Amino acid sequence: MVQSKGFTLLETVIALAVISIALGAAIRASSFGADKGYELQQRTLAGWVASNVTNELLASRSFPDMGAKGGKAQEGRFEFSWRQETGITPNLSVRRVEIKVFASENPDDVLARQVSYVSRVTN
Fold it and tell me: What domains can be seen in the chain, in order of their start residue?
């Protein structure tokens, strides 16, 4: 009886199939992680844009008019669009201000949202 010291063709094919499945899963996982990292970066910067718009409103000490207005802002290497919607509250001396921030290339996807309440300043 002769003993072979190598692998059969079937064993080699099965080993290659297992390795290719494992590598495919690893590539998919790293791609998913990279996409989520990019999205997290955009959402973080969009949150900063919303905070900046809110802080500008609060620093101006003005009572915002009802309705909506918008603008553009750049944070990091990204360009964002923002929309400020001002609404009423049960207290007529307080207004509800909602800031929504969008990526300029995708204006349908809200990346950040911030709600604040601004009161009328009396001297």
Answer: 9-119 (3.30.1300.30)
DSSP string computed for 69-111: EEEEEEETTEEEEEEEEEEE-SSTTEEEEEEEEEETTEEEEEE
Task: For 72-100, give one letter per residue: b (16+ CB within 10 A) or e.
Answer: ebebeebebbbbbbbeeeeeeeebebbbb
Please give the backbone phi and psi of residue 55, each rounded to the nearest 5 degrees, phi first. -65, -35
DSSP-derived 3-state class of residue 9: helix
> Can you tell me which residue has the tokens 């620093």?
59
pLDDT by position in tens, the chain (length 123): 667 677 788 888 898 999 999 888 888 888 777 778 888 999 999 999 999 999 999 999 889 999 999 999 999 888 999 999 999 999 999 999 999 999 988 888 899 999 999 998 775
At residue 68, the 3 state secondary structure works out as: strand
Among 42, 50, 66, 43, smallest CA distance to 115 is for 50
